[in-house]
Write a structure and sequence with these properties.
Oligomer: heterodimer
Strand content of chain A: 25-35%
Number of helices of chain A: 5
Structural class of chain B: mainly alpha
Largest sheet of chain A: 8 strands, mixed
CATH superfamily of chain A: Gcn5-related N-acetyltransferase (GNAT)
Number of helices of chain B: 4
CATH class of chain A: Alpha Beta
Order of helices and strands of chain B: EEHHHH
Largest sheet of chain B: 2 strands, antiparallel
Strand order of the largest sheet of chain A: 1-2-3-4-5-6-8-7
Distance between the termini of chain B: 31 Å
Strand content of chain B: under 5%
Order of helices and strands of chain A: EEHHEEEHEHEEH
Number of domains of chain A: 1
Largest interface: A-B, 31 and 20 residues
Number of strands of chain A: 8
Number of strands of chain B: 2
Distance between the termini of chain A: 23 Å
Radius of gyration of chain A: 16 Å
């Protein structure tokens, strides 16, 4: 169980505006829906479901399970301006690997929000005693790749022409890993 | 750290590090970031001085972290210390400079984590480049 008592957490962005970070709640369906509609197609390519369908977002909001997927939203007023989700497996061989997805609204890029969200996910990953955080990013999203690398993620693989966007066009997929403290503790048993 | 400086116009300028959270750490970081040891014409004395400054900075960071619950920052501090020790054992070769550079990057990340916990924006040395008469800095946070 990850402690969530640090939320809501107010942060200051590079332009001196503020955002509040907090876990998504069922009442956020509308805000998340409006947020997703602002994102460029390439940012939505990884979703397994069609997030242009309102019912998909409604279903997510109704079935929140923080132990499986913990979505932290960045709010400005009533609007969602960013999200960072930590996906975890309760059992199985990847239960110590957390998968990270970070999305930032186009108007809120270049303000340090993406980096702040990465810091938040690193904190949560440590608290969840994970061994690794794993982020998958399409190679064109260079700002995201650089930000992840500056925060300690290391490029593990680049899979050429590996994933397709929603128009069917192929893209290179960059897989980045962040080793966590738990990894070193596990080495000795 | 000097308390004031002189702009190219000859006018006295106030130290930009006065006030604010973790300003001692930020100033300590930038002294290294803009330090002579990173220049092509750096001498062995410049590098030696940078080692001492780094040791002092990491010590001050460790004190600031004592009262904070930020596991990633503790891990980065450990990595910074490890890089510093590796740099010190390198006897001034090019790898030693690289490891000192790594230690500075880890220190920067820890300072960023401390600021983030207080809800403040990350530290960007670029904002202070004018104080050091630095023409350009390698990067700015861009995401």
């Amino acid at each position: 169980m990850i402690p969530l008592d640090r939320y809501p957490k107010e942060i200051t962005l590079r332009d001196d505006t503020h955002a509040v970070l907090r876990p998504m709640i069922p009442g956020d369906a509308d805000g998340v829906w409006r947020f997703l509609r602002q994102l460029p197609e390439i940012d939505k390519a990884h979703f397994r479901e069609d997030v242009d369908q309102r019912e998909v977002v409604d279903r997510w909001a109704k079935s929140l399970d923080y132990d499986a997927a913990l979505p932290i939203l960045a709010m400005q007023g009533d609007g969602v301006v960013g999200s960072a989700t930590l996906y975890r497996n309760r059992t199985g061989w990847k239960q110590r690997v957390g998968i990270v997805r970070i999305l930032i609204a186009p108007d809120f890029r270049h303000k340090g929000l993406g980096t702040a969200m990465i810091r938040e996910i690193r904190y949560l990953g440590e608290k969840a005693a994970l061994n690794y955080l794993l982020a998958e990013v399409i190679e064109e999203q260079q700002a995201a790749v650089r930000a992840l690398e500056r925060m300690g993620f290391e490029k593990a693989f680049v899979h050429r022409k590996f994933v397709n966007d929603r128009t069917g066009r192929l893209h290179n997929l960059v897989v980045l890993l962040h080793p966590m403290s738990g990894l070193e503790e596990d080495t000795f048993y | 750290m000097r308390a004031s400086g002189t702009a190219s116009s000859g006018k006295k300028v106030e130290c930009p590090y006065k006030g604010g959270a973790f300003m001692g750490l930020r100033a300590g970081h930038d002294l290294l970031y803009f330090g002579r040891w990173r220049r092509m014409d750096a001498t062995a004395i410049d590098v030696r001085k940078a080692h001492h400054q780094m040791k002092r900075l990491l010590g001050e960071i460790a004190i600031s972290l004592e009262t904070e619950d930020i596991p990633p920052a503790r891990k980065d501090l450990e990595k910074a210390l490890e890089a510093l020790y590796t740099a010190e054992s390198g006897e001034g070769g090019p790898d030693a400079l690289r490891y000192l550079d790594h230690a500075l990057s880890y220190a920067h990340r820890v300072i960023g984590d401390l600021l983030h916990e207080k809800g403040l924006p990350p530290h960007s040395p670029a904002d202070f480049a004018g104080w050091y008469d630095a023409g350009e800095v390698p990067f700015r946070e861009d995401w």
